[in-house]
Each structure stands twice: as C-alpha cells, then as structure tokens.
Design a protein that fits this description.
Elements: H1 2-8, H2 13-30, H3 55-63, E1 67-69, H4 104-108, H5 116-132, E2 138-139, E3 146-150, E4 173-180, E5 183-190, H6 193-209, E6 230-233, E7 239-243, H7 274-285, E8 289-291, H8 304-317, E9 323-327, H9 332-335, H10 347-363, E10 369-372, H11 389-400, E11 406-410, H12 422-430, E12 441-446, E13 470-475, H13 491-498, H14 513-519, E14 521-523, E15 526-528, E16 530-534, H15 550-561, H16 567-578, H17 583-604, H18 635-639, E17 645-646, H19 663-670, H20 680-683, E18 686-687, H21 698-722, H22 729-761, H23 776-781
Parallel strand pairs: 1-2, 1-3, 3-5, 7-8, 7-16, 8-9, 9-10, 10-11, 11-12, 12-13, 13-16
Antiparallel strand pairs: 4-5, 4-6, 14-15, 17-18
Helix pairs in contact: 2-5, 5-6, 10-11, 13-16, 15-16, 16-17, 17-21, 21-22
The structure holds 4-O-methyl-alpha-D-glucopyranuronic acid.
C-alpha cells in the first residue's frame, strides 16, 4: 500500500487540473441533451449516447463512478511521434436522407485528445456524465467509488497486486472492483494507455447496459454487478481494420451513406470534427486500423499532397489507438512516370517503392502499411509481368519492413482467361503460394469464394494455407443485401462464417475459421493475425445510412476483438446502447436483428442461390441476365436453371469446387443429402422435383422460401411498430419508413424471381401460392441508372 501511495503521490491535482480543465469544459459542452425528453435523436451519437439511466440503475452506477483517478495523464506524451495539432471545425456534416437535423450534443463534441489516456478520461467523464447527469470529477487521490486508470508504468504498485497483467498484451485490459489505499475503487488496468482507453469504453458499456459478465458472450448481472467486477479482456486478433472504399473525389464505391467521411478537398488544413467521433466509435470497439482509400486505387494517393492529407487524418486518429493504412495501386511508379515498368523484380521499381515508404514514414511515423488489390477486375498487378502474387507482395513488404509496416494482399482474384468456376480461382492461385510470402504480408481473403453474397459457404482458402497468415475480409456495407435500406444484421452472417469448422468430419481437433484466424501462421519469426471490414460509414448524420446499419459496424468491431463472441449478445449490447436499455425493447429489437439476415436470404437468394442481383449496381433481382461480356458476371451462370432443374454443380461431376475443402467438409458438401439446405444450390444442380427435408419438392420449397422471406419482412415492420413507446419519435419513424420500403422490395424480389424461374421451369404454382403481381417483362424492364455506390 505504501508503494501505491507513493505511486499516486507525485501526481498532484494542480498538475492535472489545467490540462483537464479544457477537456472538462468541452465535455460539458458536448454532453448530450439528457433527460431525453425533448432531445431529438438523429443517430449521430451511435451507440455512445450515454442517455440518463433510470433511478435505480443510477444509484448503483453512481456508487462506482464518484471520481476518476488517472495518474500520469498530464505527463503522457502522444503515442505517435508527430505532434497532435489542433483540429479545425469542418463544415457541419451534410444533412442525411434519413435524418436531417444535427444533434447539438454531437456538434459540440469533437475536440481531439492528445493521448489515449486523455481520450479515456474524457470519455469516462462524458459517459458517466451522461448516464448519471453529473460528470465525475477528476481527482488526484484515490477515494471511495473512484474509477482508477493505471498501468504498471503510471502506478508501479500494480505490479505487486498479482493482477497478471502480462496476460493482457499491449491492448488488453482488466476491470476489477478492488481496494486501493483502503478505498473501494473500480480499477481499470492495462499495460498501455490504449489498453486503458479500451477498458474505459468497456466499463461505460457495462454501466450503460447493465450487461456485466463474459464480454461479448451475453453477460448478465445488472448494474449492481458493477461493484463486483472482475473481467479481463484482450483482443484475439492483432489487426482490426476498416477498409474504406472511398475515392479521392469523395464518392464511395458500394457506399450507401452519403459521401466519403474524408473531406479530401479540405484536408489537410481542415480536419472535420467528425474524425474525432469516428475515432471514438472505432476505439469503443477496439478497431485499431483504417485503410482510408478504395482498393480500386489511384496513383495520386501516394503523391506528397495526398500523403499530407492522410497524415492529418492519422494525427487525429492516433490518440485513439488507430493507425492509418493506404490502398496502393500496383502500377503507381509507372503511372507517375517514375519508372518504365511496374515489374516487381525490376530493381528500379523496388527502389521507388522503398523510397516511397521512407517518404511516407517521415510524415506518418506509425503508418500501418499497404492494402493491395492486384490482378483483379482490371487492376494492375505482378501477373502483368508474369510474376506471382508473392513476387508483388514481397517487393512491397521489403519496402515497408524497415518501418515495421505490413502488406495486406487481397486474394479476391478472378482472371479473364480462366474459364473455370469463379469460386475456385482464388484457391487455385493462392494455395500454391503458401509459405512464399514475406513475414510482414497477410493474405486478405473474403468470407466466401464469390463476392459478399447474402449467404456463402466459408472460403476454402481458410485452413488451406497453414504457412501464411490469412486475414478475414467481411463486407459491412451491404452491396448485395439491400444497401442501407434493408434491415439485415450481419452479426449472424459473420458468426456463421467464423464458426464454420473447416475440419468438419475430417477427424482430429476442430479448426473453425475464428480459430484459424486467431492462430495466424508463423512466418519468419513473426505471427500476424487480422481481420478487415469494408466500411459502411459515410457523411450522413447517422453515419451508416440507416440506424440499424450502425449495428453491422458495431458487430464487426466487437467480433474483430473476439471472433468467438456471440452475435445475439452483441445485438443485445448494441440495442441497449443505441435505442433503449429497457429489457422488453432490447429483447424485441434483438429478435428482429437475429431474424433479419435470414429474411433477406429468403427473399433474395434462398437455398444457396447466389449472385442474382442487377448488373453493376447489384440492386434488385435480375436472375434473367445472360448477356454480359464475361460468363461469370451473369446471374444465369450461377443459378443454371433450366427445364430440368436448378443450381451450380460444384461436385466431382461438375466444377469439383468441393475438393478445395478438407476431406470431411468436401464429403459433406459433395452429397446433397448432407449439404445444409441453406447451401444446397450452391453445390448442387438438382431436378425441380428433388425431395427436400420438408417433404416438399424443390420447386415448392423454393416458392415457400420466397414467401417466408416476404412474411419475415412483414414481421419486421409489425414488430417495430410495437416498439413505438420505447423509441424516440424521430428514429422510430426513420426505421419504420425503411422497413416499409424493405417489405415492398422483398415482394418485388419474390415476384420477379418466381416469375422468372417459372418461365424457365414451366411448372405451375401450387395452390395457395400467389402469382407475381406483374408479368416477367415488367420486372425485366426496370432500370436503375442512378443507383448509388458505383464508385
Ligand atoms: C472495390 C466486388 C464489388 C466491387 C469491389 C470488388 C472488390 O466486385 O462489386 O465494387 O471493388 O468486389 O472487392 O475488389
């Protein structure tokens, strides 16, 4: 205890006070319009709303948040070596199409912290201030009920407390109700200030929801349990990264939430306050990296003016534990006229990249590295010079290695010359390269082998490259699942992929995708692990284009921290923070979320059908399209429906894509009787009268699935209507309008698909099945030249 006193003693209150006075006053300004009555919610505050707790919960939470003690905060230096400059206010974010009025609270927010510890303190004051109606003061000495933020460096006494902090790594944290100096406190302990920031957010999440227990697994306990906390949490993956497909002209490829959040034109001088809230939101989930620009990249991003813009964003995000990465176009030196080729084995090319890396690190000392899309959909790459993906990735890796930067090399490839099943191409190209990548390369693999469909089996590359660290790529933006219009909670989809045991039926230990990602691969003395999510964030007031789409950002981030977290538990957490902690509301919203993705699968692509969306924009049904340049751009390529049946034969009698899976899983998928019905037509071409588990014929089952999708979309809006008493009027209305639109589009999907497949099968509709509202030609005539998101 004496040591502890000593540790705290050198941090007198007069040192803290001036430093935090400014932060405090900002927090006062930034405090949301509490009392909720009269507060217009437009979604800007995301899950960080910190609205007042009810009386009983308030009493319990107040007892554990009487003050904040953060030794060393005033002395802490910014975590990067670049100074953290002041942030100018950008123009207010443009009004969104769902929500137009800016929230005063949110507009007042946005002063950047200079260090992760300052960010943690400011967030605790803002958060508890909101939940309790009064901000806990910053105190220099421990008092009963204080929240104490400490690392072994800031409070040496921690080392003698048997906290086993060494098990937490550099980013983990411990939350413990304990006694310090004879006082009852809540200790947030970590090995780094970033760990403390994550711990602060976790504590606020628990205080706001009362969900105390196993993190991400559906803890119980209520706010009372906050006084008996004992939780430790550390991220299971090292790189937890958002991928923005944001273009330099501020359009966003596959973006449905307005313009890019990055106001490139105004950067670097003008740093929109919104970047700070972006950083807070990501830090609250543990996201620690962001790729600022589209994988369909331009050479300009690597020129000095654009590096300066990226550096300004990096400065703002740094105190929140977030590193900046850039998507690099492989032919950049050639296109900028600096070299005569982009051949990765040409010494001049390698020298250019090395000099470029050196230049970037001078401006962004903690730059993360490059994300690369090469030899895919027309992008340049090493194969243009008859070199391999490994040749290309390793050349870039060598340029970054001296700075500890990494390369995330995408495996999303399908080449023009390859007539084979598109689903097989990434595996065919990358599997032979296993073990040939440099130690600082990760291969980034989409969750499925085609392209972010409403449902895909897990990509066969997972588990097939034991000597290469594979990074998961999920899509958070809903390119193929109804844009931001449809409610489709993707937590269930992510969990389905992450939980797939790639060794099913193969004997021996299980190897789920989550386990494979967590294990990474030993490569030249390092073991990298990671996950990426294609962001759904834009300039709209509600960030994601709809309130419910925020949940997909949330679920991605929380699963990135713990890929074995439970989607339902995450939905509950999100609902309680975002809409209302009222148990009845949380239960209803969670149920809606949990059924929502299956509804979309049912009315769009049931039973394993895939890629039936409209050409280019991917909006709406177009299963009839057969005239595109490449066979594998056409929906008919994927469903293969004819008079005899429907589905893509990927068994040995067909493309034999099943053989890319480990033997047990391959056996399961090779037989329609053991293939899950949800993926039946992904792997099998079956006659229309094939007998399904329900006893129905395939044709009848298909119709039933379409109908159930429509019924589920209807149910979503009915359930939401009942939630009116629990939800603030504006957001309730915003969601209701979208659910009505979703229902109408579900009917459209069902009718157009049935009209088309009936025209192919020639089969009658069984009694009780409603005929499509319009003739097939009507659905075929619909065009959407101005659909958003085409980049
Ligand atoms: C960024 C799909 C999308 C493209 C995207 C591509 C990719 O094809 O439709 O917009 O391009 O995937 O992931 O590279």
């Amino acid at each position: 205890m004496r040591r502890l006193l000593k540790a705290l003693a050198p941090v007198p209150v007069r040192v803290f006070a001036p430093v935090f006075a400014a932060l405090l006053s900002l927090c006062v300004l930034a405090a949301p319009a509490h009392g909720a009555s009269g507060a217009v919610e437009d979604g800007y505050d995301l899950w960080l709303r910190y609205r007042p707790l009810d009386k009983a919960a308030r009493e319990q939470v107040r007892a554990v948040a009487t003050a904040i003690v953060a030794p060393g905060a005033a002395a802490a230096a910014p975590s990067g070596s670049a100074p953290a400059p002041s942030v100018a206010a950008g123009s207010p974010p443009p009004a969104g199409r769902v929500a137009a009025l800016p929230s005063a609270a949110a507009m007042a927010a946005g002063a950047p912290a200079a260090t992760p510890l300052q960010a943690a303190v400011a967030e605790l004051q803002r958060g508890f201030g909101g939940l309790l109606g009064k901000e806990p003061p910053l105190a220099a000495s421990v008092q009963d009920g204080a929240v104490v933020l400490a690392t072994p460096a800031s409070m040496p006494a921690l080392s003698g407390m048997g906290l086993k902090l060494e098990t937490l790594g550099q980013e983990g944290y411990l939350l413990r109700s304990t006694r310090l100096q004879g006082r009852k406190v809540t200790l947030v302990a970590a090995n780094s200030d970033t760990g403390l920031l994550y711990g602060a957010f976790a504590l606020l999440r628990k205080a706001g929801t009362g969900m105390v227990g196993t993190d991400g697994k559906g803890g119980k306990g209520g706010p009372a349990a906050l006084s008996a906390l004992d939780e430790r949490s550390a991220p299971k993956l090292q790189l937890r990264v958002l991928n923005h497909w944001d273009n330099l002209d501020r359009t966003v490829e596959r973006g449905y939430a307005g313009e890019s959040i990055w106001n490139w034109w105004a950067l670097p001088e003008v740093r929109d306050r919104r970047y700070v809230d972006y950083a807070r939101a990501n830090a609250s989930l543990g996201i620690n990296g962001t790729v600022l620009n589209n994988v369909n990249s331009k050479p300009d991003i690597l020129t000095a003016p654009w590096i300066a813009k990226a550096a300004a964003v990096a400065d703002t995000l740094r105190p929140y534990g977030i590193r900046v990465y850039l998507s690099a176009r492989f032919s950049t030196p050639l296109e900028l006229g600096a070299t005569k080729t982009a051949d990765p084995l040409d010494p001049a090319v390698a020298a250019w990249w090395k000099a470029k890396a050196d230049e970037i690190y001078k401006t962004i000392p903690d730059f993360g590295g490059f994300l690369v899309k090469a030899n895919s959909e027309g992008q340049p790459g090493p194969q243009d010079y008859h070199r391999s993906h490994a040749d290309g990735a390793n050349m870039l890796a060598k340029a970054l290695a001296p700075h500890k930067g990494i390369v995330m090399w995408r495996a999303f490839v399908y080449a023009h010359e390859k007539p084979d099943d598109r689903a097989k191409q990434a595996y065919d190209e990358f599997k032979p390269l296993d073990g040939t990548f440099d130690a600082n390369v990760l291969v980034q693999v989409k969750n499925g082998a085609i392209d972010f469909q409403p449902r895909e089996p897990a990509h066969p590359l997972f588990g097939a490259m034991p000597k290469t660290p594979l990074m998961m790529e999920f899509q958070i933006t809903k390119e193929y699942l109804g844009y931001a219009t449809h409610l489709a909670y993707l937590g269930t989809m992510y969990q389905e992929t992450l939980g797939t045991d790639m060794r099913t039926g193969s004997g021996g230990a299980s190897a789920t995708v989550a386990q494979i990602l967590e294990a990474g691969a030993q490569q030249g003395g390092s073991r990298l692990t990671g996950i990426a999510g294609v962001a759904n964030i834009g300039s709209e007031r509600n960030w994601s284009g709809s309130h419910f789409d925020q949940a997909n950002w949330y679920a991605f981030g929380r699963l990135a921290w713990n890929p074995q977290a439970d989607a339902r538990a995450l939905a509950r957490e999100w609902a309680a923070q975002t809409f209302s902690p009222e148990p009845a509301a949380v239960a209803q919203i969670t149920d809606m979320m949990m059924m929502s993705r299956e509804a979309v699968v049912n009315y769009m692509t049931p039973l394993g059908l895939h890629h039936l969306m409209g050409t280019g924009h991917h909006h709406g049904p177009a299963p009839w399209v057969a005239n595109l340049e490449r066979p594998d751009w056409n929906p008919v390529y994927y469903h293969r429906a004819d008079k005899g049946g429907i589905g893509f034969d990927r068994t040995a009698g067909g493309s034999n894509a099943v053989a890319q899976y480990a033997p047990g899983l391959a056996r399961q998928y090779a037989d329609p009787r053991t293939t899950p019905e949800t993926m039946l037509l992904w792997f099998h071409h079956l006659p229309w009268d094939y007998k399904m588990a329900s006893g129905r014929k395939l044709w009848d089952e298909l119709l039933a699935r379409y109908d159930s999708g429509v019924a589920q979309a209807d149910e979503l809006r009915q359930r939401w209507a009942k939630l009116k008493p629990f939800i603030d009027a504006r957001r309730h209305e915003d969601v209701a309008v979208l659910l009505d639109k979703q229902y109408a589009e579900a009917v459209w999907w069902r009718d157009a698909s049935i009209a088309y497949f009936q025209s192919v099968s020639g089969l009658p509709l069984p009694a009780g099945v409603k005929a499509p509202g319009m003739p097939l030609d009507y659905y075929k005539s619909l065009k959407f030249p101005y659909a958003p998101g085409r980049g």
